[in-house]
Amino acid sequence: MPPQITRLLLVTVAIVVAYFTARHFLVPASFGQYGWYRADALKDYQLLPINYAGQAACADCHEEVIKKRAKAKHRSIACETCHGPLYAHANDPTVKPAKVGNGNFCVRCHEAAPARPEKFPQVVLADHNPGQKCTECHAPHLPTEAP
Question: How far apart are CA 68 and CA 78, in angstroms?
Answer without folding.
Answer: 14
